[in-house]
Predict the 3D structure of the following.
Amino acid sequence: MHYKNSLLSLLIVLLVITGIIINKTTKKTTHSLIKIGILQTASHPALDAAQQGFIDAVKATLGNNVEFVINNAQGSIINAHAIAERFHADTSINGIYAIATPALQAIMAIEKEKPIFIAAVSNPAQLGAITEKTNVCGTTDMIDIPGTIAAIKQILPDITSVALIYNPSESNSVAQVTLMEKELLHHSIKSIRVGIATETEIPQAIISALSKADALLAPTDNLIASAMPIISRLAYAAHKPLIASHNEAVAQGALMARGVDYYMSGKETGAIALSVLHDGKKPYTIPIAPTRSDTIVINKPLLNKFGITIAQISDTIIFIDTNN
Amino acid sequence: MLFEWLIIQGIIERGLIFSITVMSIYITSRIIKFDDLSVEGSFGLGGALAALLLTHNIPSFVALPLVIIAGACAGLATGLLHTQLKLNNLISGIVVTTALFSINLKIAGSNMVLNNKLTLFDLIPFASSNTLKIIILFPLISALLLLITWFLNTECGFLFTAVGDNPQMLTNLGKNPTLYIIGALMLGNALTAFAGALFVHYVGYFSIWSSVGILIIALAGLIIAETIGYGFGFSLVVGAILYQAIIAATFEFNVDPEWNKLITALLIILIIACKKQFALFTKRPS
């Protein structure tokens, strides 16, 4: 009995090893020059866009000479570590693209040599990623909060109170919400914090927030981003504007966003990756730059529904037509 | 060859850490037959506390006992809710996990970076490099396993087993079953909190999300362990390692990432189905 059981476990271990070897040998046939491992924290439109932007930018230059190994941790830190280990161990991988903070932390803990390119990370310095000889480079998704609040004030001048919807367990959201509160106060708008910890709590929390405030404002929060469709539907039903911090949200029913365009963010990181992998620059010579965020994206049908006319604004405005 | 070894090494390291949670689940769900859902909370609690203490330069030999005590307190809370307020065992676990989420956030925030503080793995100088974490983990887990095995064979340990099988027997012996239920829960949660602390030392940061899915890791590890051997023993460690191997293998198949979870599920089914097959063969001659 025991003999057979140990045989079984041996069999499984062998299976894993053969899987690894088969995987390795089959990949040798495609002699691409550069191989990039992509470690994405979870699936939602903003992060997917960051992935697509990166791939598009790198492919535009390298064409078929680049190969991507795409893996998604599906929100699990432990999975992120398993993927990071795999990328670290695979010597044929030249660089790693980490999308969002958990992915960066997982890969950073293991990989000290290969370049790590980042996007959708708000504060890499706080994570200890910026050292003298760091192998981390890329873009952050820190938004221009004073600019956002000023734009809200211009487009929706009648607003007196705003509910800040965010997940208190995402450090980037907490940091942004604190800044937003300060800036709203500056414009003498009342702010109410609505912390939401899990996706199932969203409907109740949003309904309560909508009853207390004139508008909803969300930072670049992963939980809020994944629940954007339901949040926008509730806001629409309550006839109140929803302002997001990632531009992809507008297509999902937010009224406006003056935040990060994650596709562009991914593209910029892709350009940085090229300068490292293709032109031989060292990651620590490239400063980590915030993504440009001075464009306001507005949902045209919603704007008409609220009967808002937009006065002169210094920012560039993009209108999106959705059939909400 | 280095490539394969590095991946296998990572699997073993994580498996060793999670084997502690598997032991914890074994003690609660198999010995006292109490399905304890508070492990997700206490894993995070251990991690949060370890991160906080480490960043305040508290040495590990003080910090880790504190973590274990904190975990035991979580178990005490679950036990008291169940035995005193007569809450259903699942509910008491859920309540404690829910409450601990906020407490963990208060302790360490959503994300706490250790910033190159000396972790447990830096204690032995040559073990700090990536290659030699097993040198610390393996003896540690083995010692823990032996210690608990020894404990379960003491008189007190036998009474733990009795609580699960036949609580009436304890009453007949003049012992209070409540005490043993709470004791086992404290032991289980203390172990899980210790695993959470080890994980933080291992990865170098605390994240509130790291405890998500721990229950599944522990349960899957336990189920796999039970296809290998019976009782409390080294099979629990092998089960935890095999589950990590399954996760790693999922990524090795290199398919569309959206299929990952399905592949993990299929691999688990494969292992358990294999076991059923083996069981048939072994039963037939007798």
